[in-house]
Specification:
The chain has 136 residues and is mostly helical. The protein has 4 helices and 3 strands, in the order αβββααα. Helix 1 packs antiparallel against helix 2. The longest helix is centred in the first third of the chain and has 31 residues.
Length: 136
């Protein structure tokens, strides 16, 4: 049977791990807020930047874009916006991957199939056994 100090030590370890994850998450949120990415239309006539709030923050038109008809210009603008959002999502995935270090874990977190047990298991914590200590 486990001693009370063993349970306390395991709980302290879990608390430290949770605090570290909270710190990492705060850092990820800070990095995301500062993120700026650019997308460009396939014809190279429109460039669009997206900020950390996923708002279009700037549009650059090449002088040749002014020769396009309105439908073509709208298409180029939409393509640039789509490219910027795709770049934003890709960079966000990279940042999350850097945080947790496993592309499979990133994929599972994004599609909602990552369980808390799986998340903590990668750090050596077995949530089904609260008396277990962290691997060092």
């Amino acid at each position: 049977m486990s001693s009370p100090s063993g349970i306390g030590g395991a709980l302290e370890g879990l608390l430290r791990q949770a605090q570290e994850q909270q710190r990492r998450l705060a850092e990820l949120q800070r990095q995301r807020a500062e993120l700026r990415v650019t997308g460009e239309s396939p014809d190279g006539l429109v460039r669009v930047s997206v900020d950390g709030d996923m708002k279009v923050g700037g549009v650059e038109l090449n002088a040749r874009a002014m020769r396009l008809d309105s439908v073509s210009l709208a298409g180029s603008m939409q393509a640039a916006i789509d490219a910027a959002y795709a770049a934003f999502e890709e960079r966000q995935r990279e940042m999350l991957g850097e945080m947790i270090g496993d592309s499979e874990m990133v994929r599972r977190a994004q599609d909602g199939t990552l369980t808390p047990e799986d998340w903590f298991r990668q750090f050596g914590v077995d949530l089904s056994d609260p008396t277990r200590t962290l691997r060092r």
